[in-house]
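REQUEST ID: PR-0412
SUBMITTED BY: lab tech R.K.
PRIORITY: routine
TASK: structure prediction, single protein chain
INPUT:
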Amino acid sequence: MLVDKCLVKSYEPTDDEIKTYDKWIKVDEMARCYILSSMANVLQYEHQSMTTAYDMPESLKEMFGEQNCAAKQTVMKALLTTKMVKGTSVREYVLKIMSLLNELEILSAVIDKESQIKMVLQTLPDSFQQFCLNYNMNKMDLSLTKLLNELQTTESIIKQQAPPAAFMADRPSASTSKPKGDKKKKKKPRKVSGAYDGVDMPKGKYSHCKQPGHYKK
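STATUS: complete
OUTPUT:
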């Protein structure tokens, strides 16, 4: 089917459309520069010929999609198994949780704010039980940063209310043995009957006292 060229009208964009397109070209070029600068040299060489910034993330997903999935599972497992150990700093613990959440966000696994707060509260030790009850009863709505500040304040109060550790001095007990110099030597029992200067004497009656055990002179 032949179409008369006179019937076909060429489309001419308006001035506003031209300005919008030029603005988009500048923004897209800036985005390409940011993405390329964050890549390694080998990846830069492979992606610098791409015309738009949208094509770059799609290409990276094809190259590292499986690795991204494995990394996501590893970080998620670490987040779900992390618990605050009694005696450690609550600040270090919450910062660790925030770091894992940031890694998941980079890996395109975003967790909503309410779930993030629950993950922190449910993994705190029993010393923060009263704080968790107050949070749920008062229906508090805090970000992770504000929650961290509140937990640090609670931690300082808990430390002030804790009883001081008992100081046990090393003292000698009453049952402690005396020095060797005070010990008295035990004497061996001495034979009385039928003995004279360690020599056994014959038994008989003494001529004067008539008692047994003496010999007759």
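NOTES: The chain is about 50% helix and 0% strand.
REVIEWED BY: pending
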